[in-house]
Amino acid sequence: MSRSNPNNKRKYVIAGIVVAVALVYILQLFNLQILTPQYRDFADSNAFLRKTLYPARGTIYDRNGELLVYNQPTYDIMMVVREMRNNFDTTDFCNTLKIDRERFLQLNRDMRDKQKNPGYSPYTPQIFMTQLDIEEYGLLQEKLYKFPGIYIQGRTERRYKYPNMGLILGYVAEVDKNKIESDPYYVRGDYAGKSGVELSHEEDLRGEKGVEILLRDAHGRVQGRYENGEHDKAPVSGRDLTLSIDVKLQALGEYLMRNKVGSIVMIDPRTGEILCMVSAPTYNPSMLTGKDFINNYLQLEQNPYKPLINRAIAGTYPPGSTFKPSQGLIFLQEGIITPETRFSCYHGYPPLGGRPACHGHDSPLSIQPAIATSCNAFFCYGLNWMLSNRTKYDNVAEAFDKWKDYMVSMGYGYKLGVDLPSEKRGFIPNSKFYTNVKKTDKWNAHSIISIAIGQGEVLATPLQIANFAALVANRGYFYTPHVVKERKGLPLDTVFTNRRSPKIDRQYFDLIANGMGDAVLRGTAHAINLNPDVQVCGKTGTAQNPHGEDHSLFMGFAPKDNPEVAIAVIVENGRFGATNAVPVARLMLQQYFNDSIPPSEKGLEQVIANREILPYIYKKNVPKIPKEY
Amino acid sequence: MLYQANRERMDKGRVDWFTVVLYLAFILLGWLNIYAASYDLENASSLFDLSGRAGMQLVWIGTSLLLAFSLLKIDVGFYETYTFVFYFVGIFLLVVTLAVAPNINGSRSWLVMGPVRLQPAEFMKFIIALALAKVLNTYGFKIMSRNNLLLVSAIILLPALLVVMQSETGTALVYISFVLVLYREGLPGGVLFMGFAAVVYFVLGVRYSEVQMGMLSVGEFATVLLIIVFTAGMVWNYVKKRNVVVTIIILAAAVFGAGYIASYFGLKFNYGLLAIIALGTVCIYLLFLALRFWKWIYLLIVLFAVVSFAFVESAEYVFYDVLQPHQQMRIKVTLGMEQDLRGSGYHVGQSKIAIGSGGLTGKGFLNGTQTKLKYVPEQDTDFIFCTIGEEQGFVGASALLILYVVFILRLIHLAERQTSIFGRVYGYGVVSVFLFHVLVNIGMVIGIMPVIGIPLPLFSYGGSSLWGFTILLFIFLRIDKSRRPF
Asked: Does B44 touch chain A (CB under 8 A)?
């Protein structure tokens, strides 16, 4: 090591840099901590108070502009634990709020519970109690100066103008822990849609929260806005929605279906807009708002008739004879039958010894009269011919999967994609399903013959059945059904405006529509004949139900030319389609075309509305059904 | 056996207790402040609660002390012998990490083995220092020879590149800080000066790039003037001819004077154009001198001026067209061009408020509100200095900063007293890493440096970083202990 190495002097340069930079840093610290009064102000104030400004949730209208859902102010109590003094007058506080000490302590525990409130901190405002009405708010506001650390935060609550369509609208409730963790937008105490449109359109309706940054002094008193509100953010109101539902039609439907279990769905086939969607039993949406929410919710949830399930989209039923038109379409399109092909029927399907049975009618029949008279044998023959056809298909599996593909393209077997949560897909089996169930691939049409007449394994939701009616009404296409007609300032999603067309020729739809027209004129659905005003096309259904009386079904559309409305009605345990579903559908169509029930039909309306068809439920302590229906 | 006995006699030197005491002070204070930063009044957990951050840090501290003790027992020859093995294992681990690491907060630098998570990049710091020490210790090593320069650059840049690919740019910059070692070992000061000049040009150019002055922006105009000043300075430093310097200044002033006079005759006074003409005139003058006296140095100075000008022109392009918007934003916030209290300026804004609210003597231990309100992010890792600033005030924060300065000066002193080049180079490696970490981390927290996520050494929460610094430091103390007498 030579001592004279000139590089040895460089240690002074390096050390010099270290000291120089440190001096600059100390100057900056001096600047921040001693010289800048702005930061000293912060030192005097405890901290910022970030006050959330809640946006008004979007309001909801029906298709005619009738207001359905709106907001009303309500107040929450916020608590900043760190600011509360030891001499906090709990007794006075409890008296003001009319709660007892026990409840006060319980609320306190809930607030501090990290399980229930992951964002708890003693330094920031935490929700202590929610939903004060305006009087309680007034009382507390007067005494607020006595309670340091207590703040009042305003927000709004949902109000409903009509007692109808609780299941479509859905309800709004406090977000749970999962929601808080999965979506950073929400904090404890926020409200969000939990079902129905309130859930499916939550992001439209909720708007955007704003924030106001306030400064506080050491005593917790608000001293003003931070930098004159430069960093505040105004809340953005939620988007208003217009539903495609006609509230009058909906109200009539719910009235007719009272004391029954079932569903009515009406669709405008020209757009896919759902005009009414009744699920019985239902509930008054006002029950699930405000302070009674919990009690009412529990009551509804424990009700054995399950009024919280929207049967129109989540109830799956064997479609019964309403299935036959779809079968006819497949057989025609695949060339299994021609419009002239006739099958004979001797009160049943001859190859299986008259099973499934049929009722008395002319024989043999071609497809159009077979639809009109709802001949079981005809469609059993059709399915057998299709599945046994070895010139077109190599094996039964190929034939059957072809059948399944047609069914799916007509809207069965999968979720249609309606803009409501908890839609079910129904069930259309494929060949693998039967190979698994029968434990052999040697099955044939006769082993599964009941699906030809909408029994057996096949299941469909009322919405799917109504949608099929819309498909026939349009003679070959449909739009994904939806309940939201308009989002203010935003176009509708293209999934609701694009046509969906199964690969079936229009001429076959005409044939099926004629058959359904004949069913109304002189067939099984003659009770819905509204001639000469409107020519209705329809198909009844009677679905066998192993748990009790058969379900009564009707599917149809009107008028026959240029259809405006498609309908599906299901009355559980309502026996023949003509017994209950057809008169319900008749009244709904009357309301639709006349905007009221004509005086001549008032008697029928009374009869149907007063009919009680509730299955007996073997269960102890059945709570009373709420009186709304 | 004889060999070993011989070694032991040589190892009789003492561990530098002064440094060890400082080390212990840092980890102890760090531990207390981690406790304060994550302190929750309601659910106050104990300092020793293993589920809390402070408790976990205690585990890291305990293991680090064990590690430190073991390192003091290992023979120095071990490091010298296996340096390159370490280096290749380190590179291998970095590559493996790159391939298998899960994405944790946008960084792919963690090697997860069951419950253990390690950051190989942390350990690469001492390995690079060892490798540099080994290479520079080679007999007859001359830093300015081309092959040596390439080798040394490769040793630093290869791991830096791998670490950048792991999205740990901050750590890569730490590796680059080893340039300081090279400077100490003879890299010309001009190189450091050029680095400094580049930073100044960039900052000036970008900071004032939004107002135009004739052909150039205000920033570019100022930088061109600065280039003229630097050029004159270089002439002063390397040629030592006062009359040339004076001529340069007169030439530049004359160009502006001519422009001023021309403006009376209807020509628009264009600052930008004039600055470029002035710089051009100076360059032509120097070229003339180069040819006249046949001296390379003038040519090199002209080259410096031209390259500087090209750099300034391209800096703006790089800034606006190559950098990502969030990177632009961070730099803009640091340069005070943007006040973005919610985006990237949020961290720094909040940490400045926290520190500023500490005042002269602070709010007292555990009494800080800003940090506990969770306004300050990363409050127990990268932003831990906030807690000191808020709770201990100007007095505490300055004291800690001074303590770090003392620590680093002590390390420089230790490095200088090494009798082997190996020891000295390694020592300066340690100095570089600690210096860079301390300056960048504290600079970031007090709003002087851009936000680069690197921890405060021996202070921030984290096992890998504490272990890494402990290994780095104690290998050096071991080398220092066994330094050979003259």
From this structure: no
pTM of this prediction?
A: 0.56
Compute the CA torsion angle A573, A577, A583, A587 (nearest 10 deg).
100
Decide: helix, strand or coil at residue A290: helix
Residue after which a domain boundary falls, among A186, A218, A241 = A241
Chain A hits for B357, CB-CB cut-off 8 Å, are: 39-40, 42-43
Handedness of CA B231, B235, B237, B241 (dihedral sign): negative
- Looking at the fold, whether A472 and A589 belong to one and the same domain comes out as yes
Q: Look up the domain containing A440 and give its range.
A: 247-610
Interface subset of B 383-442, CB within 8 angstroms of A? 389, 393-394, 397-398, 401-402, 404-405, 408-409, 412, 415-416, 419, 431, 435, 439, 442
pLDDT by residue, tens only, chain B of 486 residues = 444 444 444 445 788 999 999 999 999 999 999 888 877 654 556 677 777 788 889 999 999 999 999 999 888 888 888 999 999 999 999 999 988 887 776 677 888 877 777 888 989 999 999 999 999 988 878 877 888 888 999 999 999 989 888 878 788 889 989 998 998 888 887 777 888 888 788 877 777 776 676 677 777 888 888 888 888 888 888 888 888 889 888 988 898 888 888 878 777 777 788 888 889 999 999 999 888 888 888 888 888 888 888 888 887 777 777 776 767 776 776 666 655 444 455 667 778 878 888 888 887 887 776 665 555 666 778 888 988 998 898 999 999 999 999 999 999 999 998 888 899 999 999 999 999 999 999 998 888 887 777 899 999 998 889 999 999 999 999 999 887 654
Residue pair A31/A38 in contact by the 8 Å Cβ criterion: no
d(CA A358, CA A367) in angstroms, rounded, equals 16
Residue of A nearest to B444 (CA): A25
Q: How far apart are CA B130 and CA B82, in angstroms?
A: 10
Distance from CA of B119 to the nearest CA of A (A): 28
Residue A2 lies in a domain: no
Interface confidence (ipTM) of the complex: 0.83
Neighbours of B254 (CB within 10 A): 12
- Rounded Cα gap, residues B163 and B166, in angstroms: 5
Tokens of residue A247, six digits = 């509230």
Is A425 a member of any domain? Answer: yes
For residue B184, give the nearest of A14, A32, A124 by CB distance.
A14
Alpha helices in B357-420 (DSSP H): 384-416
DSSP letter, residue A549: S
- A257 and A234 assigned to the same domain: no
Shared domain check, A230 and A361: no
Show the CA angle centred on residue B87, arms to residues B84 and B92, nearest 5°: 130
User: Could you tell me the CA-to-CA distances from A600 to A412, A580, A592, B473 in Å, in that order?
Assistant: 38, 18, 16, 100
- Domain C-terminal end among A190, A219, A241: A241
Let me know whether A231 and A321 are in one domain: no
Same domain, A253 and A189: no
Reduced to 3 states (helix: H, G, I; strand: E, B; else coil), residue A140 is helix
Query: Which H, E and C letters describe A238-262, residue by residue?
Result: CCCEEECCCHHHHHHHHHHCCCECE
Q: Is A583 exposed, middle or buried (0-12, 13-18, 19+ CB in 10 A)?
A: buried
Looking at the 3D structure of chain A, how many domains does it have? 2
- Residue A254 and residue A106 share a domain: no
Burial A247-286 (b: 16+ CB within 10 A, else e): bbbbbbbbebbbebbbbbbbbbbebbbbbbbbbbbbbbbb
Which position has the token pair 């393209």? A409
Closest approach of chain A CAs to the CA of B160, in angstroms? 23
Question: Is A1 part of a structural domain of the chain?
Answer: no
Same domain, A236 and A251: no
